[in-house]
Amino acid sequence: RVFRYLKATAGVGLLYGNTNDELNLHCYTDADYAMDTETRRSITGYVLICGGAPVAWRSTKQSQVATSTTEAEYIAASMGCREILWGRQLLAELGWKQANPTPLHMDSQGAIKLINNAQVHARTKHIDVLYMFVREAQAEAKISVTYVDTEHQLADALTKPLPRDRFANIRHALSMCAIDSGNVHDQTQIIRDDCNRTVHEK
Q1: Nearest one of 122, 116, 113 to 136, comparing CA atoms
Q2: How many CB atoms lie within 10 A of CB 182?
Q3: Of the N and C termini of the chain, which has fewer Cβ atoms inside 10 Å?
């Protein structure tokens, strides 16, 4: 199945510069709770976008067992946050310092509340020690954690198998298109509209 997909998408690539975001970063993070049936570890997925298309992405098993969906999403956010901080530093060194906090899009209200709540609870102390820098990044206005509904969560494709149509929509929203068809310029406006609608619709 994997090789059939690779063969069918050999001419598909990332199209940059198809939005008005220029070099503004934004990131999507997601987690699939206890996805691994043997270890019960959750799967983290994140995608960092710049110039209208992904510049960094990852799908990986979390290094520790999360005890709840909220905790799994919080751990995923911490991994995305590290990628954001790396991207901000790299762009600053290249002369494109980010003027505003980088949006970090999540579909977990519980994890967002946990990040925004400075009070340490006993049941979350073990993850507070490891992932406190997410709160610090929020407090220092390096990131801005925002809610995005699951339908518009672009990291969803990196955490679990999805129906064909859902997967195709996410791939299109990530500015992946046929680059060898000779009509890339004709597709640019279509993809720009779709991407803007995906980001702004709630």
Answers
A1: 116
A2: 8
A3: N
Residue 59, Cβ density class (10 Å: 0-12 exposed, 13-18 middle, ≥19 buried): middle
Nearest to 98 by CA among 195, 22, 199: 22
DSSP-H helix ranges across the chain = 2-8, 69-93, 109-116, 125-139, 164-173, 184-200
105, 32 Cβ separation under 8 angstroms: no
Radius of gyration of the chain (CA): 17
Over residues 32-78, the pLDDT tens digits come to: 999 998 999 999 999 999 999 999 999 999 998 998 999 999 999 99
102 secondary structure, DSSP code: E
Tokens of 12: 């598909």
> Rounded CA gap, 75 and 44, in Å?
8
